[in-house]
Design a protein that fits this description.
The chain is α/β, with parallel strands linked by helices and 278 residues long. 32% of the residues lie in helices and 16% in strands. It contains 9 helices and 7 strands; from the N terminus they run αβαβαααααββαβαββ. A 7-stranded mixed beta sheet has the order 3-2-1-4-5-7-6, with helices on both faces. Strand 4, helix 8 and strand 5 form a beta-alpha-beta unit. The radius of gyration is 19 Å and the shape is globular. 36% of the residues are buried.
Length: 278
C-alpha cells in the first residue's frame, strides 16, 4: 500500500467527526476491497485517514460538496479568496448573511467554498449549522487567531483528490445502490439517531433525518447485504438502532461529543459500529 500523507486531513470541523474513533473504525475495515464508498462524507476524517486509490464520496449538503470540488479543481483561486477574509464580528455577519439574498445565486463556486471555510473556522464551536430555510445560522465565535487559511492541509487534500480516482457526488444517500458492486465497500456515517430529544442535531443540511430515514437506511444496508456487498455503519447506541440492526455484528465504542447546547451534557457517549462481515 502506498505511504499515506499525514497532511491529508479534514479541512472543516464537522458534526459527528470521526477523528477520535479512527483506530476502532480502521480495525473493523475489511482487509481487501477495490472501491471505497462514503455516502455521508461530511468532514472526510475516515476518507483522509484511509486515503483509498479508488473512491466515490457523496453528501447531500451541496455547499459542502462544492468545497470538495473547489479544493480539487480551483485550489489557487480558493486560497487567494480565503486570504481576503477578516476575523471580525461585523464582517462575519455580513458574510453569513449572503445566503439570505437572491444575489447569493450569482456568486462563484470559489466564493461559496471560501465562505463556508471562513464561517466554519470563525463561528462558535466551529459548527456548520443551517436553519429550516437552509441559511447558515451559527453565531460568531470570537476566537483570537483562527486558522482560516490552512494552506498545507488544503494543498495536501487537493493533491490526494487529483492523484487518485476519487469521484465526488451530491446525491441522496440511497443512490449508493446504483454504483456499488461486489468489490465495493461502503462506510455509512449518517446523522445520528438522537440519544435524547434535546440532543437531536440534523442542522448540517436542510431537512431532518428522523426515524423513517434511519429505517430506510437500514433497508438499504439489508439490500447491500443480500447483494454480497460489505458495509460498516456508525450511529448512536440507542435502543432503536440496536433493534433495527440486530441481525448484524454490533460493536459499542465510546466517543467524546461537544455539540450539545448544554455544556454539562457534553462528554463521553456510547456509539455503535455495525458491520455485515467478519
Amino acid at each position: 500500500m502506498a505511504k499515506k500523507n499525514k497532511l491529508v486531513a479534514p479541512f472543516l470541523k464537522w458534526v459527528g467527526g470521526k477523528r477520535q474513533l479512527m483506530p476502532e473504525i480502521m480495525q473493523l475495515f475489511p482487509k481487501k476491497f477495490s472501491i471505497y464508498h462514503e455516502p455521508f462524507v461530511g468532514g472526510g476524517a475516515v476518507l483522509f485517514s484511509l486515503q483509498p486509490k479508488k473512491a466515490i464520496i457523496n453528501d447531500a449538503n451541496s455547499e459542502l460538496i462544492n468545497v470538495y470540488n473547489t479544493i480539487k479543481n480551483n485550489l489557487e483561486e480558493l486560497i487567494i479568496d480565503l486570504k481576503i477574509h477578516k476575523n471580525e464580528s461585523d464582517y462575519f455577519y455580513k458574510i453569513r448573511s449572503l445566503d439570505r439574498d437572491v444575489s447569493f445565486e450569482s456568486i462563484t463556486d470559489v466564493q461559496r467554498a471560501s465562505r463556508i471555510i471562513f464561517l466554519n473556522k470563525t463561528c462558535f464551536n466551529g459548527l456548520y449549522r443551517v436553519n429550516s430555510s437552509g441559511e447558515f445560522n451559527s453565531p460568531f465565535g470570537k476566537y483570537a487567531n483562527p486558522n482560516i487559511v490552512n494552506e498545507a492541509t488544503l494543498r495536501a487534500v487537493s493533491d490526494y483528490l487529483n492523484s487518485n480516482d476519487v469521484k465526488i457526488t451530491n446525491l441522496d444517500y440511497s443512490q449508493i445502490l446504483n454504483s456499488v458492486d461486489k468489490n465495493s465497500f461502503v462506510y455509512f456515517d449518517p446523522p445520528y439517531h438522537p440519544v435524547s430529544p434535546s440532543s437531536n442535531f440534523t442542522g448540517y443540511t436542510q431537512g431532518g433525518f428522523g426515524v423513517d430515514e434511519q429505517i430506510k437506511l437500514r433497508d438499504i444496508c439489508n439490500q447491500l447485504h443480500s447483494n454480497g456487498i460489505k458495509f460498516l455503519l456508525s450511529n448512536s447506541a440507542t435502543t432503536l438502532i440496536k433493534e433495527i440492526y440486530a441481525d448484524y455484528e454490533i460493536h459499542e465504542v465510546k466517543a467524546n461529543r461537544s455539540i450539545n447546547s448544554d455544556a454539562e451534557k457534553r462528554g463521553e457517549i456510547s456509539e455503535v459500529l455495525i458491520r455485515n462481515y467478519e
